[in-house]
Design a protein that fits this description.
Elements (H helix, E strand, L loop, with lengths): L7 H6 L13 H5 L3 H8 L1 H28 L3 E3 L3 E8 L5 E8 L5 E8 L4 E5 L3 E2 L4 E8 L7 E13 L2 E14 L2 E4 L3 E5 L3 E9 L7 E6 L4 E7 L8 E9 L7 E10 L6 E10 L5 E4 L3 E5 L5 E9 L6 E7 L4 E5 L6 E8 L9 E11 L4 E10 L1
Parallel strand pairs: 2-9, 11-17, 19-25
Antiparallel strand pairs: 1-3, 3-7, 4-6, 4-8, 5-7, 8-9, 10-12, 12-15, 13-16, 14-15, 16-17, 18-20, 20-23, 21-24, 22-23, 24-25
């Protein structure tokens, strides 16, 4: 039988060794079959033609794969994981991440996005030549992260020639809890004036005192509505954020800044995002939920949605503020659609938490609904 190595790429796939598939390669199996051996020998030309065709196809595929691998740029991080080590919630550490460019043509860095707002990424080297290094600056906001070991993913998009490629990086930190904010960031969907509360907890033996509240927009106001007593730690402050009638934007990204008397932690910054609804066509039942964790059993609640005008509803995505919550919903268009919200016991803290779930609809009319959720443990 003739050799089946049809091209240089095929030889590369078989590690540079020329291999011939002949009938002598199978002496024991063929000679042991007696008459069957003669049948196989008589059909050998057909088998040879079939194997030739297969080899030709594989050779073409190999050429394409090798060409694709050669053309692809490689931005490889110098370290497998950018580890911040142990970080207090009172810190905001920064560090740089180096990536080596192993491609053959220049790469243009387009966007770097972390899987969570706890990590902000800045591109320091927008263009990198082959053989050179690209630099990213990572800023960690541990106040927005749960205590313990955390791992985030950073997706870096870059262009080489006409191709848009991605490199995924890992960022890690061990968060130690001294001061916490729950929820760590506020994502509000409103149709008019509304209020939302969050809790600041100081776990240290000698706590700070919040002396002043500021906001970054005139349509936002914040005030301390409850201060901790003398029994602690922990010490808790309840802060109320109010979205006023002055809100004219359809979307607002702002901050609540809490000034303290502690030189170690002079200010706490809580990010706020507000989306204004222009309609309240979606009816949700129930309007809110209280999820109580008993032991190690998860707690769930089913919500139903319908359009006031009787049109079909379709959920496109759901955003949760707290990592303990996970959501499942019916995919498709329905007169009444459903969403199940489940609280996982391993993520629910000992203290009561007020959070929310935001449900986005493609139908009707790209609307969103915000559902308050209370998490408790017994």
């Amino acid at each position: 039988m003739e050799e089946l190595t049809s091209c240089a790429a095929w030889r590369c796939l078989v590690q540079g060794k020329r291999r011939s598939l002949t009938m002598a390669s199978y002496p024991s199996s063929l000679h042991a079959c007696g008459d069957s051996h003669r049948e196989l020998t008589s059909t050998a030309p057909a088998v040879q033609r079939m194997l030739k065709s297969v080899a030709a196809v594989l050779g073409s595929v190999a050429v394409w794969l090798l060409a694709w691998c050669d053309a692809r740029a490689e931005l490889i991080p110098a370290e497998a994981t950018a580890d911040f080590g142990q970080v207090s919630t009172l810190q905001t550490p920064k560090r740089e991440l180096i990536l080596q460019h192993h491609g053959r043509t220049p790469a243009e860095l387009l966007q770097a996005q972390a899987s969570c707002g706890c990590v902000q990424v800045e591109i320091l080297t927008p263009r990198v030549e082959p053989g050179q290094s690209a630099r990213l600056r990572l800023t960690l906001y541990p106040l927005r992260s749960p205590p313990g070991r955390n791992i985030w993913e950073v997706t870096l998009r870059y262009r080489e020639g006409d191709a848009i490629l991605e490199t995924r990086l890992a960022v890690a930190a061990l968060i130690t809890r001294e001061v916490t904010v729950q929820p760590p960031q506020l994502d509000l969907t409103v149709s008019n004036v509304c209020e939302h509360e969050f809790v600041v907890t100081d776990h240290r033996a000698k706590p700070f005192r919040i002396v002043r509240c500021e906001t970054s927009a005139p349509s936002l106001s914040a005030s301390v509505v409850e201060e901790p007593g003398s029994n602690g730690p922990p010490y808790r402050w309840r802060v109320r954020l109010r979205v006023t009638a002055e809100l004219v934007e359809t979307a607002l990204d702002g901050q609540v800044v809490l000034h303290t008397n502690d030189p170690v932690c002079p200010r706490l910054v809580v990010p706020v995002r507000v989306r204004r609804l222009t309609s309240s066509r979606i009816l949700v039942s129930p309007a809110d939920a209280n999820l109580v964790i008993v032991g190690n059993m998860p707690a769930s609640r089913l919500f139903t949605f319908r359009d006031r005008e009787g049109k079909l509803c379709r959920i496109t995505r759901v955003e949760v503020e707290h990592p303990a919550l996970r959501c499942q919903w019916a995919e498709g268009d329905f007169p009444i659609t459903t969403l199940q919200v489940t609280a996982e016991p391993g993520q629910v803290p000992a203290e009561e938490v007020m959070t929310r779930v935001v449900v986005y609809f493609a139908e009707p009319n790209n609307l969103a609904v915000s559902i308050p959720i209370r998490l408790q443990r017994r």
